[in-house]
Amino acid sequence: MKFKYTITGIDCPNCAAKLASLMEKLDGVASAGINFLAERLTVESELPEAELLPALTAEAKKFSRGIEIEK
Length: 71
Fold this sequence. Notes:
Layout lengths: L1 E7 L4 H12 L4 E7 L4 E6 L3 H15 L4 E3 L1
Antiparallel strand pairs: 1-3, 1-4, 2-3
């Protein structure tokens, strides 16, 4: 399934690409992409959203405390 979220607090396109790459390494995540200008996170995963969103948020917070992900 494809999930779309608003992601804020990323400082540059390079950081967005690095974070998306880290998110793709999470168990159950097939792909992840961040559109820096639109502040959009798109994730393809078989995980239920109740498990996916906390995992994505935890990974984002490890990358930078100021990043927020919202549905």
